[in-house]
Specification:
- The protein is α+β, with helices and mostly antiparallel strands.
- The protein folds into three domains: 2-33; 38-100, Antifreeze-like/N-acetylneuraminic acid synthase C-terminal domain (Type Iii Antifreeze Protein Isoform Hplc 12); 110-194.
- The protein has helices at 2-10, 12-33, 175-187, and strands spanning 38-43, 58-63, 83-84, 99-100, 112-119, 133-139, 148-158, 167-174, 189-194.
- The strands form three sheets. Strands 5-8-7-6-9 form a five-stranded antiparallel beta sheet.
């Protein structure tokens, strides 16, 4: 035992260097055995609901394959022009459930279109989220005519930030309802009522 202790003491620096080298080799070996990362598209900044994506809004990041769902986007070019439904945080992965292509509303049903409803009072939509269902009401600003429900059970797809002209709420409606909304918007202001109706 004394010989072993003496040997270790006399060669302690060499042994320390040897063990350090082994640790490095083992670490490099584990890196080589680790699977390569998967490139996915993430948000380059915080993206509010209703954002129409541009190339500047997107970047790629490498993530472990086990952390990447099958629906994750891997090609930023294919996302340009898509509409953000729910808000997305910076560096958050973008999946199909967070985005909407205004040209493709098949998931909502046939014959539906995307319409913008400018809600005058931001407080009315403060609690709304993508996926909620609302009735859109046209209100006479002069108070001379009764309020009228223009679109029933409209599915909310995006709640953009308020502007000086109200909140440009994005909803999915039938083509006839979209025309009625456009007509009513000329002389009326819009309000919304939440409804328990089944989404489109």
């Amino acid at each position: 035992m004394e010989r072993v202790q003496r040997f270790v003491f006399e060669h302690r620096r060499s042994l320390a260097a040897l063990f350090a080298g082994l640790a490095v080799l083992l670490g490099l070996g584990s890196l080589r055995e680790s699977p390569a990362g998967t490139e996915v598209v993430v948000a380059a900044r915080d993206l509010p609901s209703g954002t129409v994506l541009t190339a500047a809004d997107l970047r790629t990041a490498s993530l472990p394959p086990a952390a990447v769902p099958a629906e994750a986007s891997t090609d930023a070019r294919r996302l340009v022009g898509r509409l953000v439904g729910a808000p997305v945080r910076e560096r958050e992965m973008l999946t199909d459930w967070r985005l909407l292509d205004p040209r493709d509303l098949d998931a909502y049903g046939e014959g539906l279109v995307l319409a913008t409803v400018r809600v005058a009072a931001p407080d009315e939509v403060a609690m709304l989220r993508a996926g909620d269902v609302v009735d859109v009401v046209a209100v006479d600003p002069q108070g001379e005519d009764d309020a009228v429900v223009v679109a029933r059970a409209a599915s909310v797809v995006a709640v953009p930030p308020a502007t000086d002209h109200g909140v440009p709420l994005q909803v999915v409606v039938g083509q006839d309802e979209a025309l009625a909304l456009a007509t009513a918007g000329v002389t009326s202001r819009f309000s919304v009522l939440t409804t328990p109706s089944t989404p489109r």
